[in-house]
Amino acid sequence: MTVDFPQPDAPGHNIDLRPEFAPRWLSPLVSDVANGVICDRLRRVLAPPQRTETTKQAAVLMLLAGDPLAHTVPNDATVLLTHRSPTMRSHSGQIAFPGGRMDPTDHNVVDCALREAWEETGVDRMSVTPLVTFPMLHIRATGYPVHPVLGYWHRPSRVGVVSPNEADSVAAIPIAELADPSNRLTVEFDRWSGPAFRINDFIIWGFTGGLLDAMLYQAGWEQPWDSHKHYDLYDTLARSRNNERLT
């Protein structure tokens, strides 16, 4: 029997936060996010708060999966990421969390994050437990306000490329690979520098890299790595599979 993919979305459903259902290995991170604890290096990577219109806000889904019975981060823990199509007008070629701009029909930021994740990856919103929202953050290059939503993928569903014009690759990346010191680096251009990851010849940097770096640090999953050696951002991207517009 052929199963249509993706299944229809259910806008407005499963939009309440349920931190009490976080697995034990995620609970400390959920608590820290709820209490507004964001490490200093995340603040350095992102832009300072700005006054912006609510209609121009966006949301992204930080979707983590892993053994629900584990007490510490399990070996099968993953986070869902996409590769933005090089033809996109903004942030083209970047590795990113699923997400996008809020629509007037979105009930809240959770609804927006789940809708966008469904549009880009086909993830079933009912397979996700929304846990907590980060304080509103800003993209450094544009000042654009973004609401990250941390979710637990309690029933991993099929995901894949749904709209190649938006995201041409979708993957659940192991947390162990992100934490591996050999996959970590610091990139810089002009007067800016920030954490990055080299995964499958892609470079994860900027807003997404900063959030992943903060997540590893705050959750206690980080391994010692050499953050003092800096690499030129443009040279690093030119050698990657990102296919970003280097302008």
TrEMBL record:
<feature type="domain" description="Nudix hydrolase">
    <location>
        <begin position="55"/>
        <end position="199"/>
    </location>
</feature>
<dbReference type="Pfam" id="PF00293">
    <property type="entry name" value="NUDIX"/>
</dbReference>
<comment type="similarity">
    <text>Belongs to the Nudix hydrolase family. PCD1 subfamily.</text>
</comment>
<dbReference type="InterPro" id="IPR000086">
    <property type="entry name" value="NUDIX_hydrolase_dom"/>
</dbReference>
<keyword id="KW-0378">Hydrolase</keyword>
<dbReference type="GO" id="GO:0030145">
    <property type="term" value="F:manganese ion binding"/>
</dbReference>
<dbReference type="InterPro" id="IPR015797">
    <property type="entry name" value="NUDIX_hydrolase-like_dom_sf"/>
</dbReference>
<keyword id="KW-0479">Metal-binding</keyword>
<dbReference type="InterPro" id="IPR000059">
    <property type="entry name" value="NUDIX_hydrolase_NudL_CS"/>
</dbReference>
<dbReference type="GO" id="GO:0009132">
    <property type="term" value="P:nucleoside diphosphate metabolic process"/>
</dbReference>
<dbReference type="InterPro" id="IPR045121">
    <property type="entry name" value="CoAse"/>
</dbReference>
<dbReference type="GO" id="GO:0010945">
    <property type="term" value="F:coenzyme A diphosphatase activity"/>
</dbReference>
<dbReference type="GO" id="GO:0000287">
    <property type="term" value="F:magnesium ion binding"/>
</dbReference>
<keyword id="KW-0464">Manganese</keyword>
<keyword id="KW-0460">Magnesium</keyword>
<protein>
    <submittedName>
        <fullName>NTP pyrophosphohydrolase</fullName>
    </submittedName>
</protein>
